[in-house]
Amino acid sequence: MIRLVPRTETSAFWQIATPVMAVAATMLAGGLLFAIMGYDPVSAIRTIFWDPLFGPAAGYSRQQLLVKAAPLILIASGLAVGFRAGIWNIGAEGQYIIGAITGAAVALAAYPAPEMWIFPAMVVAGALGGWAWGMIPALLRNWFGASEILVSLMLVYVAQRIAAWMAFGPMKNPEGFGMPGSRNLQQYPAASNPELIAGTGAHWGVVAAAAAVLATWFLMSRHIRGFHIRAAGTAPRAARFAGVKPETLVAFCLGLSGALAGMAGLFEVAGPAGQITDKVGVGYGFTAIIVAFLGRLHPVGILLAGLLLALTYIGGELAQLTMNLPAATVQVFQGMLLFFLLGFDLLTRYRLTRRVTA
Amino acid sequence: MIDPVALFLLLLSASTPILFAALGELVVERAGVLNLGVEGMMIVGALSGFATAYYSGDAFLGFAVAALAGALVALPFAILTQFLMSNQVASGLALTLFGLGLAALFGKPVEGVRAPIMSVGPLGLNWIVWLGLAMVPAVWWFLNRSRAGLILRGVGENHDAAHALGYDVRRVRLAAIAFGGAMAGIGGAFISVATVLQWTEGMTAGAGWIALAIVVFSNWTAVGVLAGAWLFGGVTVLQLRLQAAGVRVPVQLLSMAPYLATIIVLVAISARQKFSRRAGGAAPGSLGQDFHALR
Predict the structure, then answer these.
(1) Which of A44, A281, B51, B101 would be A34's cystine partner, CB 3.0–4.6 Å?
(2) DSSP state of B169
(3) What is the pLDDT of residues B63-74, one digit of tens each?
């Protein structure tokens, strides 16, 4: 009989080992799933995890890695700060969509002005839009005690419908021959978010993601607010006695993660996506939750986890093309990954010992 | 003019998926477990129920399979939270993401086909609608009048005390989670088999999350769940009526109504619970907490 003994401190070794184990277990379980579905498991796993980096078409897919990882890392950095404090923003997808809309609104209003300030103003507007959308659940929780989990999530569906309305109504391209969707910002130099270094896929979102990793690292390990956040997450009562106001943390965490998600949305709509459509939200906001957990809510971990999940996106697309695997495979993979991660997490908090029967 | 009786019958149908899912989640939460995977279990129920109904031609068999599938897909969540002490919020989210992915993956073959026609019960309402209405007193009776319900509530209110009294906290919770999964599965299948008559990816469209909000709104009572489901059904029907009547508001904005209504209701009820004497309303005492018996 195996017995669980709680650890007094989380194990540093297992903190790092469990995400690796979770990825390995996901590959195994994924292989099994492919075998059941009638695909060759080995080549499917290779197509998803290996070929995007080292396969025949790796030149293209390596660029895509940064494009896909940037929004994930940017959003997850913000989410992780809140998760540390026990504040569950699971509506990042909505904040991402609203950020894309408010950011694009600046560009569409300024069109076709060529000024330099337009793109920076869009970034600010995107961050503000996401911040405002994140502040709704924050204020409703602070004022009325409404669950930020449910409110932030409901607001995702509201945001999706606002995006659809914008694409078919107010933001519809007047020169678009009646097609839904806004003007394409890639064709508007002052507003576009181009590849900065040719061949790398790096756009301003990648720069922002790197900055977010550094900034959240500084916040969480060097700044008093980060200390408060960690205290509130591990010992809420003690934190309260030490003068940490829960309301301030709720507003800060939801505002921060909202702003980062909004920026991610803006970078996407001004860059890779190009325009506001009814499908602006592609699920980055939800996948970022997995990134945050897989990265152990630590900035460096998030960086690595973001790259890994970006890899599954690209690998999934590749497998769709070459092996005709359904697009949803990646979603299943991501869900399984989170399951395994949470399961193995046991090892960081408990020791397994053989029960000694007397 | 709109006939109020016809409107009420529409409301009953529109509220059924949420009613099932929320009644299931009510029992789960009364046992002290917060399962945020309702949306995932619903969509799995929607697909498995639809596929079964389509291939077998028997819609009722579809609902049975949907219940089974909903309970089965909740199994990883149950193992994670009850045996591996995983965070319930994160595990529930994982269940939702996993369920959505799984359903999208296996739903490809039945895209674009239509469900068999179901025989209807009294008042031209689907039998499943009646089953849902019957579940309200059944769940009420179970929670408030049965011995098993008393134990379940005890486990949810204070799992350490229940454990000390010799009750098997895990077994009670595993059973509750399975029941919640089955109910969510039926609720999901109602959308695909009885309402839309088709399978489309992501067709539950947040119904599972609304069900979660309705459990809070209900103050953890079966009658409250019914009221919440009807309120939601009313908003949905009204919204569809306004769309059909050609109101000069964009369709996309009208279709926000159920989600906005959920937020408003959630805020109102949370405020009442916050400013009333007992903080958190009637929320079970051990809701969302890990249970680890040292002895």
Answers:
(1) A44
(2) H
(3) 999 999 999 999
